[in-house]
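[Structure tokenization] protein backbone as discrete codes
[Encoding] learned vocabulary of local backbone shapes
[Protein] chain in single-letter code, fold in tokens
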Amino acid sequence: MFDRISFVDKLLFTKHLSTMLKAGIPIAESIDTLAKQTRSRAMGKVLTQILADVQNGQSLGSALKKFPRVFDELYVSLISVGEESGKLDENFEYLVKQLGKDNALRGKIQGALMYPGLVLTATVVMGTFISLFILPQLVDFFGAFQMELPLPTKILLAIANYMKSYGILTIVGIIGCAFLLSLFVATPFGKPIWHRFLLRIPLVGEMITYGQLARFSRNLGVLLGSGVPLTRSLEVTGQSLSSIPFSNAVLVLSKNLTKGKTIGETMEKEDLQLFPLLVSRMVQVGEKSGKLEDVLLYLGDFYEEEIDTISKNLSTILEPVLLITIGLVVGFVAVAIIGPIYDLTGSISSQ
């Protein structure tokens, strides 16, 4: 049931609850109002259960913690600290900004990958259609020619013969391999391997890295600004990252912090190559100056701007590459088909 609650539902709930708390409306009354007004049935059921817990004397943080698929550790920690410090309305404002930036960041990454994804999807669909329904017809067509075929046509006929005999089996095999890969990626053993592989892909890996650095910096800065202890902030931040290598690296920072080391020193001395030198040096400056929170929030904004730059470069680079590749394939097929037909009509006309 709770899987159907969208990110937008959570964002709207947080924004509306923040507004109502700033207006002085009690928590229970605010949640009751939002539960009745939400259009999402799943969100309505969650809010109804949260309202019941709050009315029974539980804290809002404890009530939210029962729904980890909806409210993550970062969310719950900020609410719990806000309740303890009497700054719940301020921490809700933090969350509204945080969720808004997360949504914007997600949109930037999806927008950057949308055009290449659409082109590649269309190419695969058209290629599959041609391979299964067009190329097999060419085998019989060119087989009737009593003439020496040019090399491009021979290559195309070899592909056509293969697709005629094993085309469906090949497509099924590719789909099966993709399905097995998805199962492997979902396992505790395969998921870290897949995440490390994604980080090594040119441009895409760089975009993922910058996205994780932006989230790490912003989440840690927000948690520290709301009064969460540094060690706990690192643990919660590590759990909020979607990339397992980055999540593990942040947990290493948290463990070393308990040994008396600073974050900046650990980033440089430990094998944490995921964090660029810029991050470690600026974190060290923030730790020495007592303005670590401000430095982290600056780094979050910096890496979001880097994602903007990469997204623009990605479209600029991939667009001509994809067009040239598709053009070469179309040109090869055209030459392979038209060439022997032209030679045949030429020989007929000469007779």
In short: The chain has a mean pLDDT of 81. Residues 2-71 form a domain with the Receptor-associated Protein fold (CATH 1.20.81.30). The radius of gyration is 28 Å. The chain is about 80% helix and 0% strand.
